[in-house]
Design goal:
- GO terms for molecular function: rRNA binding; structural constituent of ribosome.
- By secondary structure, this protein is α+β, with helices and mostly antiparallel strands.
- It has one domain: Alpha-Beta Complex (Ribosomal Protein L22, Chain A), CATH 3.90.470.
- It is built from 3 helices and 5 strands, in the order E-H-H-E-E-H-E-E.
- Helix 2 packs antiparallel against helix 3.
- It is globular and about 65 Å long.
- The chain starts with 15 loop residues before the first strand and ends with a strand.
């Protein structure tokens, strides 16, 4: 089994708060774009942006895995991308992860108003392989793909 390792950052360990969620039932493709959008934001800005996407006031830009994604009129010009979606399931997991990281920062005694998302990434997780029975004694494979998300908050 492989060991989970966070990336090495130049910020001292006592100024960081980390959190990870493993084996969630959300698309890695959606999680990638959510993570890219909020990377480098303050914690409050990221929460506000993600809540706006959940309420469909603002679309989440899709840089990658955007084939067939339609253009949205409510994407901000700062993203320099026209195509976007509203990946609600992925956003709910990311908001839960940000809450966990904020609680970890609070228990470390960090100032919550000055927290910034230093690192956030989505990774492929387990693949659950199952079989669905078909007619005439045949079967079809059925895959369920799981994902991991990790976040590191730093005090600025």
């Amino acid at each position: 089994m492989s060991k989970w390792v966070y990336p090495i950052l130049s910020i001292p360990e006592d100024k960081l708060a980390k959190a990870v969620i493993k084996n969630i039932d959300a698309s890695v493709r959606d999680l990638y774009n959510v993570c890219k959008a909020i990377r480098g934001m303050n914690l409050k800005e990221a929460r506000e942006f993600l809540n706006n996407v959940l309420e469909e006031k603002e679309a989440l830009p899709f840089w990658r895995y955007s084939h067939g994604t339609s253009h949205r009129s409510n994407i901000s010009r700062k993203w320099k991308v026209k195509s976007g979606r509203y990946p609600k399931k992925a956003i709910k997991y990311v908001l839960k992860l940000l809450d966990n990281a904020e609680n970890n920062a609070n228990s470390k005694g960090l100032d919550i108003d000055n927290l910034k998302i230093v690192h956030i990434a989505a990774h492929k997780g387990l693949v659950l392989k199952r079989y669905m029975t078909r007619a005439f004694g045949r079967s079809t494979r059925k895959y369920k793909y799981l994902s991991h998300i990790e976040v590191i908050l730093g005090e600025v």
